[in-house]
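WARN retry 2 of 3 for item q-0093 after timeout on previous attempt; input resubmitted unchanged.
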Amino acid sequence: MQRVFTSLRMRSGVLGALTLLFAAGLTASPMMTTPAHAAYGPCNTTSWRDVPHLGGTANEYKIPARTDNGISCYLGYQVGSSSAVEALQQAIIICYGGTWAAQRINNSGGADGSYGPGTVEAVRWLQSNKLGLTGSAADGVYGPDTRSRMQWPHYYNRGALLYSCSNPSTL
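OK item q-0093 returned
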């Protein structure tokens, strides 16, 4: 009887250990912890791009970017440079003014360059209500899918706001 009890306890211990190792392996795997957008790296600057239909290089829009990687980058909760976050926040306030997303940014500090909870919620709302992203794509993280669907404000000579917006993918 003692032998059977020891054998069952040993089996239970081994099964428990294997279960823990398996679970730890799944949660520690890079595929489970690294989001797809992380491959681009965080936006650490901004880039000025020409708005061709406004007639000249003096008419531009400012967009989050990554040094040596162009505009393929991401912003998330407390991730990204303040200039890149501020460009995103300004775009939401200007091009989506009157929406819940613009209101949320204004109520959580305005275009302050901090990707905090207010910006996460605003981007998530924008993704699901204005940009047509659904499910896990509406995650509150700014990345290539969000960028390609957003409207961006136009500036004249990298300074004066023209109060018009467009989506660079449609230019």
